[in-house]
Amino acid sequence: MRLKGIKPSTMGSAARALSFRAALAIALATIFLGGCAYYNYFYNARKYFEQAEKTRREASVEKGKKGVAAAYDRSIESAARMLQYYPDSKWEDDALLLIAKAYYRAGKFRNSITKVDELTAKYPESPFVEEGSLYKALSLLNVAQEDSGRAMLGQLAAGASSRKLVGEAYFGLGDYYYSDKRWDLAFDQYQEASKAAAEDKWLRGEAWVKMGICLAAMERYSDAVKLYGEILAQDIPRRQRFEAELQRAASLRRSGRSDEGGRICKELLKDGAFADDFPRVELEAARCEIASGGAERARERLEVLVEQERRGETGAQAQYELGLLLWSQWRDYEGSANALRAVKTTEKSASVAPAADSLLSEVETLAKLWMKLRFLQRQREIAASARRLERPLTRNDTLWIDSLAAKPKELPKDKPRRGMLKGDPNDPIRKMVEAAMTADSLAIDFSKADSAKTAPDTAAVAFDSLQIERYDSLRFAEWRDVIFGLSEFHLFERKSLDSARFYIEMLLSGGPTGDIGLKAAAILAFIYDSKGDTTASDSIYHSILAANPPEVWRSAAERALGIPPGPPARTAAQALVDSAEGEWRAKGDAESARLIYLLAAEVADSGDTAAARGLYAAAFITRAVLKQDSLGKELYAQVVERFPGTTYAKAAAKFAVKRKKEAAKGAAVKDDPADRLPLDGMDDVSLMPDDSLIVYDAKDVDEPPRMITLPDILESYLRSYYPFEAFPEQLRGVVEIELIVSASGEKRDVNVASARPEGFGFDEAALSVLNSIEYRPGRRSGKPVDVKFKQILTFKPPEHR
């Protein structure tokens, strides 16, 4: 059979040609098919990486980026298969770099470093080694090898072959300083990155946005607003445009233009492109409402937001803002405390967690103090009414809560209210007191020496006039304690001199009476000194002297006024000791001297140094002079028991303890000549150690010396005396100083124990700072004493502030 139109001869030629083409195709497929397969692995890996990069750049700041790591894992898996199935292929160096980049983006920094090292070792001449070093440097910054990472980035920024790599190196340095909160250095690096990355629209836009954030962090809000305006006039990706708008709104609010910031937030909420970031916009809108005076609207926004955002950084920040708002605007203790406690529940590692803890502590402390203050004021009003015979003062009026130190309980709806305070029903302090007073109450019977859970509520026995006065004086003393607590809280915790002065002046309305009044006057003088009003502080010190204060207050006031110290007032024990030593020196009458020494020990308490000296001298005379060994050792034992920790006790211990050991063994007490003190007269007794000269270690006192220089002032000293030699290297210096703070608060025997690093002037700077620091003396058994302790001063370079 023959096909139409084709001759038999031509038919054979066509068949032969077709067979040749088929054979050629098969041969070519055999040669190239393997290459296409491993290229497909690499092609897919690169495609997955590009998709992951796009997702990362467009993702929500908080929510969307959590799932990006999985997209990079697909890229890593595909490239790894190519290396496994087709080793030594011509795309191996490409694949190694791709894997290193994907590991870095996925947060697997050590794996990224390993892949870059493998690339460099196998292909040292590869054009991808330079880009690989960029990702190795970025990874080193994240594995605590910051010096190496910074050095590598600096080299790339100075001499990379492409402007894109230069820009990325500068951007990496900016991120490093940004994470360290060194905002000015971060700003400079981001600025260099934006210049170098003029061709890379995304990197340039990202650097611009970060520059604005740095300006805001440095409180240069107007500059940040201006910069964001310039950014928004440029051609940048939509994601960065959204971020620039949001950050501009925040900067406007902080610069006092909260209405403009609020309008920007409303416009952003209309754009549905970035719905995952709406919670951040809602949070900023609420902050703008607060700054504009719209507390109620802000509260509504925040309450909705915390209900929706039960997890994450934004939810935690919303909880903090709600807690702060409830406390500052309405003094809502319960609502504020609950919101602040929820910060860590929402996001354990939230950036606002430390601030929330601090505010919660402040709220709880102030709530307790205010509750007690309001209660005491109310009770004193009742006492005044009873004094005017307007109403009787009964035992029921002394009811108070036994759970004051705990969280006030919620007011039960089914429990009758009793003892409620009068006045504004919306007063938040009144509400807190009402809630607290529904707890089990404590009835105080002032006819007894102490408080007891006695008398039920029905025992409404009226107090007589004497009990009323006693009751009022006790309540007044408690009121003073609470006012003083409020002043100390504002001074030491909140560093608010004006608030502390308000409460101190309230306390001193009747003059500096009693120990607490003297303490308050000293604090007020310190406050005026801090403000530079020496006239007012001197007037207060003079009022302290006019109140005939105890010796410690008198000497402190005289020292503050520059009055030379007079001779200390002698106690009865000191006078007797002087008399006994006169008997010994003038007459050599050991018996009379011993009797007077013993009397000196009896008329003083354990805090009087003269008493310890007298008892020790009596023991010495008894054993060494009168040769009454057993009685002498008994007196030595009394010195140890009555005056522990003193030099006298330490000197007496070797005799008293030996006597006890011998008695425990049942052996006869022998007089060992080696145990005797020298018998060359009163000189030995007169040279006995004086307890006022003892220097204690910090661990051996009840209260070590306390720095009374405010932290902010100390920071100013550290900043002012930062050594010039260390400035070029931006070094952090730590200096340990040993010193003695005397009972009068003076510093002596100052010695630099260590200074790190050495040779940069930190030791001399620390001594200069120490000269400006004031200390409160350490105390032992209620008395100021000399204490040796260590003070550590840390100098930070200016960029760390």
CATH topology of the domain at 572-692: Hyaluronidase domain-like
Helix content class: 55-70%
Q: What fraction of the residues are assigned to beta strands by DSSP?
A: 5-15%
Summarize the biggest pleated sheet.
Answer: 5 strands, mixed
Structural class: mainly alpha
Task: Return the average pLDDT rounded to an integer.
Answer: 78
Do you know the CATH architecture of the domain at 572-692?
Orthogonal Bundle
Task: Sum up the overall morphology in one term.
Answer: extended
- Uncertain stretches: 1-18, 22-35, 400-424, 435-459, 659-693
Count of alpha and pi helical runs: 31
> What is the total tally of β strands?
9
**Gyration radius, to the nearest Å?**
40 Å
Distance between the termini: 99 Å
What is the CATH domain class of the domain at 572-692? Mainly Alpha
